[in-house]
Specification:
By secondary structure, the protein is α/β, with parallel strands linked by helices. The protein is built from 18 helices and six strands. It is elongated.
């Protein structure tokens, strides 16, 4: 029994290292923070929507519709000016301005379907951001039901089909400075949600594939002792780091090019094949946009490779290297789910800072940002990715000069140093002219 206990202690000690614990603890903290942010957004979306109403008809039918709207939502504007109503809604973070035209009851009594004109104020394109517009749609259905009830109570001679469906929506959406007539926030969110799922997923897969190659290479070289041999050669440690990164970056660049070609066909097909021609609203990418997306993706890959090289330093063999890919995977999954759930512009400041600090976030957000001409966020992300990659590579060069590269941990005082043979070879290597 004692031997089994000793084996268990040995395995736990070897597996439960700071290199394994610290990344998981950091990921758990980040996930918890983002969970609170998303949960807060959900609570906010569950509240009654803030709307404005302009009743130009003033009839019993429009009054019934207004009373239902006022009962189910928070009406912050009830005037006659569209521009004034939009201003008030913008200040109060409203969702929609609903107008009941002057011929609303006249059309219904003449057996014609009435019209409710809705100007949507779209804040974000995430799943959580679209909940408020869905709530307004349900309230509009209740308003139509109120109109139907009035018609039935009046024993109106209106056609039964009109009584059951007394009004339809005429929609215009304002999103990030673009006024898009004839399209709802749901249609825009549906289009962007395809990219919010597919694009981050592709980025995640590319990062995992390229990163696992770097970490596995480090583990294999340690297991086969080729890394120790390489370190004894008259080659600068910085050259070794940059050589490994350059080789992996070339592979990553090939993956990025393949990704960009597939993405081009993907965006073209869903834009052209959809029920709504979104290209007439300017929701397309030009050649410069694709170049920026490609640069952002490549720098994101370079950052991932540099991080993987740092993690690979802690790998003792190929088997242990496989487990070290998990922190990079988790780090890439965080922005993937966050971008799907919330729009970056509607997140609290804490969430924006957390996501911006993760270099993999920027290629995932680039497509959506460029569609709405948000070049500041994309270019800023590219600059940050470049700085992150440079700093991480500098740390990797520093680590390649330390004992941790071969031991997998920092040597404490009192621990035995490296093998004297390797120590002598390293010393001879440093004495050689560079």
């Amino acid at each position: 029994m004692k031997s089994v206990t000793n084996i268990i202690k040995k395995e736990v000690k070897e597996l439960l290292t700071p290199a394994a614990l610290v990344p998981i603890i950091l990921m758990a903290a980040i996930f918890g923070s983002l969970g609170n942010i998303i949960g807060g957004a959900g609570d906010e979306a569950a509240r009654p929507p803030v709307i404005g109403v302009i009743d130009q008809d003033g009839s019993a039918l429009s009054t019934a519709a207004f009373q239902t709207l006022n009962k189910s939502a928070i009406v912050v504007y009830n005037g006659s000016s569209v521009s004034e109503g939009l201003t008030v809604l913008d200040e109060r973070e409203g969702v929609a301005l609903i107008m009941i035209p002057s011929d609303f009851s006249e059309r219904i009594t003449n057996n014609q379907t009435g019209e409710l004109q809705v100007i949507w104020i779209m804040k974000g394109a995430g799943i959580m951001d679209s909940l408020s517009s869905t709530s307004v749609d349900l309230i509009l259905q209740l308003a139509c039901s109120s109109v139907s009830k009035v018609l039935i109570d009046q024993h109106s001679s209106v056609n039964s089909s009109v009584i059951l469906n007394p009004a339809v929506k005429s929609e215009t959406t304002i999103f990030r400075g673009k006024e898009m007539a004839g399209i709802s926030p749901g249609a825009i969110a549906g289009f962007l949600s395809q990219q919010a799922f597919v694009v981050p997923l592709i980025v995640l897969m590319v990062i995992i594939m390229a990163g696992s190659m770097v970490i596995s290479s480090m583990g294999t070289e340690k297991e086969n002792k080729t890394l120790e041999t390489l370190l004894t050669l008259p080659v600068r440690r910085s050259s070794i780091v940059f050589g490994k990164l350059a080789g992996s970056a070339i592979v990553g660049l090939i993956l990025a090019i393949i990704y960009m070609v597939g993405l081009g066909y993907y965006t073209t097909s869903i834009t052209a094949g959809g029920p709504i021609d979104l290209s007439r609203y300017g929701l397309t990418l030009d050649a410069l946009d694709y170049v920026l997306v490609g640069i952002s993706l490549f720098l994101g890959l370079l950052s991932a490779l540099a991080l993987c090289m740092l993690l690979g330093i802690f790998a003792k063999n190929y088997k242990s290297a496989q487990t070290l890919t998990m922190p990079i995977t988790l780090l890439a999954m965080i922005p993937m789910f966050a971008v799907m759930m919330l729009d970056f512009n509607t997140m609290p400041l804490v969430g924006q800072v957390l996501l911006f600090a993760i270099p993999f976030t920027h290629p995932m957000m680039a497509i959506r940002s460029l569609m709405f001409d948000d070049y500041t966020l994309v270019v800023g992300g590219i600059v940050y990715e470049a700085a992150f990659a440079f700093v991480t590579m500098a740390i990797a060069v520093w680590a390649f000069r330390k004992d941790i590269l071969l031991t997998g941990r920092l040597r404490k005082g009192g621990e035995r140093p490296l093998n004297p043979i390797w120590r002598a070879l390293f010393k001879m290597n440093r004495m050689r002219p560079r």
